[in-house]
Amino acid sequence: QRRVHGEERMLPELKMKPLLLILALVGLSIATSVDLQSDLGALLASKARASDAIDAVLGLLGDLKRSSLHEQQTLEQRNRTQEGEGTRTVAQYSDMLNKNEKQYQDAINHREYIEKEMQDTENHITWIETRLEEIQRKLDELAVQRCQANSLFVQALKEHSDALKSLKFVANELKRLQGSGELTEIKSLTQKFLRYENLFEKEVVTKFISLGKGEEGQGASQGESQEAQKQQPAPSGAAGQILQMLTKLEQSLRASMKSLEEHEIQAAYDYAEFKSQSEIENTTLREDMERKHKYLAKLEVDIEVAREYEDKCLGIRDDSSRALDAAQADLDARRAFYGQEATRIREEQATLDEIINIFQAKVSSMQVQLRDKIDSDGQDSSAFLEESSEAEGNDDQPEE
Question: Minimal CA–CA distance to 128: which of 298, 280, 296, 282?
Fold first, then answer.
């Protein structure tokens, strides 16, 4: 015996062939045991015994044929059932594998999303740190610049203040010397003013110096020679012109001081505004960085969970794949077993049909020989033929 898919079956070569060979030998020995040289009585007795034996053999062959057909039907029915169940099982495992594969891919996508979020968060934190450093560096630079600018502003105010004092002194002295014609004193006064010439426009300074030297006057004629101007005393109106020029210079100085103060105030305001905005931005950036650090800490926990879940999904996917392979292999094995069994049954049925045909042909040949024997002896064969006909009528063919 052998076990196939939990079923015990006889090996084909041990089930049918020896039995068929034995039946064939018994039938043939019975059929050939009739002595054709015997008398009619002996022939009839032998014929009766042979008929019984033939009936028994044909009955056994018919039973074997019916058993083989029943086995074939059972095999086909079982194959249809197993084919349907196996196909459904394979389809179910295949659908399960597809779902688990999708679940595994979703786990991969989720893990990659968390990793990207972590990278983006780290990049944003790095940007915030860089921005905070940049703001602090800018504030430090502006603080140094404001210190330097403030020092320059104080120095410029002092220079303007000293220049105004000098202008007032020169103006007072000119008023005292006005109309005296002392050109040397006037020149001396104008020389004191030259130390502040950088505070005025070059053209104004040049004109003021020319007036102090007596080289030009507001009412002087352009046709006079320089030699004549040197020999003549400074016009009585020269001091008045210088005083007018000093007034204009004083106005220019005060306007310059006002401009310096306005620019200094605006610069200080701009610095204070930038510092205030920077502090607001620093506060916002630090709050944002704190949120990002908390979010990054959460992501670090999430990535571990995501990796564990991905590994779990991978294991489930692999189990589904192995289950599908096992189901497909079982279905293929059942199909192969069905093919082998169907081939065996067809071969057994062909062997049975061949033996039956041979056996029937041998029996028919024996009957013909008996009739010929009776006819050659000149005996009345009507009774024999009647008995033979009845015997032939009782010899049914095996059902197929």
Answer: 282
Contact 196, 166 (CB under 8 A): yes
Mean pLDDT by 10 residues, the chain (400 residues): 43 46 52 49 61 76 85 90 92 95 96 96 96 94 89 85 78 67 55 58 57 46 39 49 75 84 90 92 95 96 96 95 94 92 89 84 76 61 49 46
CB 296 within 8 A of CB 118: yes
Contacts of 175 (CB under 8 A, 6+ apart): 239, 243
Strand ranges for 76-217 from DSSP E: none
CB contact burial 171-199 (16+ within 10 A = b; e otherwise)? bebbeebbeeeebebbeebbeebeebeeb
Q: Measured between alpha carbons, how far is 212 from 234 in angstroms, rounded to an integer? A: 9
Helix axes 40-177, 17-32, angle to 10 degrees: 160
- In contact, 27 and 54? CB cutoff 8 Å: yes
347/353 Cα distance (integer angstroms): 10
SS3 content of the chain, % helix, strand, coil (to 5): 85, 0, 10
